[in-house]
Amino acid sequence: MQPYFFPYIGYWQLISAVDTFVIYDDVNYIKQGWINRNNIIGSNFNQLISLQVIGASSFKLINEIEVGNNSQKILKTIEQSYSKAPYFKEIFPIIEEILNQEEKNLAKFIGYSLEKISNYLKIDTKFLYSSSIKKDNSLKAQNKILDICSKLNAKNYINTIGGVNLYDEDRFKKEGIDLNFLKAKIINYQQFKDEFISHLSIIDVLMFNDIDAVRNMLKIDKLT
Question: Which of 36, 60, 115, 186 allows an S-S link to 64, with CB 3.0 to 4.6 Å?
Answer without folding.
Answer: 60
